[in-house]
Design a protein that fits this description.
This protein is α/β, with parallel strands linked by helices and about 240 residues long. The protein has eleven helices and eight strands.
Length: about 240
């Protein structure tokens, strides 16, 4: 089954089974505590990295704009990109797991699940020295085993322009900007140059609309929604 078809099926399933807002404990971060009441918040998230050329350029653009994002990384791509991962962490971005080889987690036995999630967690721990990583399952597909074995909150999304489909910067930027909503979670991929360009256009456009970008942890902490291991979340709508 194609990447696109899997994602569309997963999106349809999410609409049927997921609540409008997550349940579950975000640690109260300093940044979240300082967010002004009534501020429009949105989380920018990226999958499938790190890729040195595109991810580094994205980090440069986010730093220029004072924006923090959340990156769901492929474990196999951490090696030889350890400095990029450390930079994400040092610059205040949040980091999560997107499996080791970008495979579906549903239907796996425990050993195969651990080879995708725990192996990635161990790789990140070795680089960063901490263990507070979120999980985003590829294609957004999850089942009871994934929830039971995740060992951390599971983060999905509410705004998906399918940037991988045609890698059209202007379309992606326009679609995300039009669909933006307070408490939303944007899904992009930092492995495409066009998506990096779109992300920076989105940031500039939504800043003009009064949005503040924050990490997933900050977003849910600001909304008073605790993030709990094994629970899935796709927005923090007020």
């Amino acid at each position: 089954m194609s990447y696109g078809k899997l994602r569309r099926l997963a999106a349809a399933a999410l609409a049927l089974v997921l609540p409008l807002s997550g349940c579950g404990p975000a640690v109260e971060t300093d940044a979240a505590a300082e967010l002004p009441e009534g501020q429009k918040l949105i989380a920018l998230t990226f999958d499938d990295g790190p890729r040195r050329s595109t991810t580094t350029r994205l980090l440069d653009g986010l730093a220029e704009r004072g924006v923090k994002a959340t990156f769901f990384l492929i474990g196999a791509q951490i090696e030889h990109n350890e400095d990029v991962v450390r930079r994400m962490d040092e610059e205040g971005h949040q980091i999560g797991i997107h499996t080791f080889d970008h495979v579906k987690l549903t239907g796996l036995n425990r050993a195969d699940f651990d080879s995708q999630v725990e192996k990635s967690r161990d790789a990140l721990k070795a680089v960063l020295g901490h263990n507070d990583f979120l999980l985003r399952p590829p294609y957004g597909m999850l089942d009871e085993s994934v929830k039971s074995w995740a060992g951390c909150p599971i983060i999905l999304w509410s705004i998906d322009p399918e940037d991988w489909r045609d890698q059209d910067t202007d379309r992606v930027a326009a679609e995300v900007t039009a669909g933006a909503r307070d408490g939303g979670i944007i899904l992009l991929h930092d492995i495409f140059p066009e998506s990096v360009d779109a992300a920076l256009q989105i940031v500039d456009a939504l800043h003009q609309q009064g949005y503040l970008f924050c990490t997933i942890e900050e977003l849910f902490a600001a909304r008073g929604i605790p993030l709990e291991a094994g629970e899935s979340y796709w927005n923090a709508y007020p």
